[in-house]
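job 3f2a | input accepted
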Amino acid sequence: MATILDFEKPIMEIEKKIEEFKKISAESGMDLNKEIETFEQQAEDYKKDLYANLKPSQKLQIARHPERPNFLDYVSGICEDFIELHGDRTGMDDRAIIGGLAKIDGKPVMIIGTMKGKSTKENLEYNFGMPQPQGYRKAMRLMKHASKFHMPIVTLIDTPGAYPGISAEETGQGLAIATNLRDMAKLNVPIIAIITGEGCSGGALGLAVADRVYLLEHAYYTVISPEGCASILWRDASKAAEAAEALKITAQDLLKFNIIDGAIKEPVGGAHHDYGLMCQEMKATIKSAIDELGKFKPDELKKLRYEKFRKMGSFIEG
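job 3f2a | predicted structure (318 res):
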């Protein structure tokens, strides 16, 4: 059964009425086509207006929707000939980060991303999309391989954050993420990062030091989860909606601050309503970015990448 979010219930009521009219029409032989068409148009108009004017807290719900496409869904819809590469070469293959060689319309790329499951069993396998240090080390190993063999890098990010457990701290979580930030800045090939759902804290940034950073229309990108922010500021996680508003986590806000380079439109209702259309939009964006960035020499790429991140933020000197 499809998961219906609270703010989507009025749409479900309209669609329920439409189904009732169709049933009455079929059973009684009455011609109710005009009434049905009117309701269908009302439902379509309401949907477009609703999803075009969502609050940050509502976008948060869509970004976390359990039926939202995950990394492997996007890989199968965007790429050909995907070959997964395993392990960090020090003893572990973190399943929360998956990566490998692939082709996009015949052109080789290295595609890497955080992975979430859609069932309890899958979420346990992928640790709910929360990578351990070994995952970031695996990702960097693959990125350096891509840089050596002149392949563009594509990262797809959907994570509530890096794994905060004791095992991650003991094996160098902070160091692994910091190393990725440093070394991604020095790679010789184009890097395109797309936040497809949740883009939270250093767990997301560890894969997002890129030449082009994009956000799906209903995804979010933030230094801390709204619940975590609310717990710190107000000692009350239930104030997450207020925190989401204050944090400026949506694509519209992040574009204004030049944190991201573009927003990728989602199907009406969110990416989970049409995997195929979402993959088409993402594929077009990736190809365009690779073509644009392919014009730069490695030294130019690195210089522009460095300048891009140095320009972020505002400073007041006393």
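job 3f2a | The CA atoms of residues 226 and 232 lie 10 Å apart.
job 3f2a | closed
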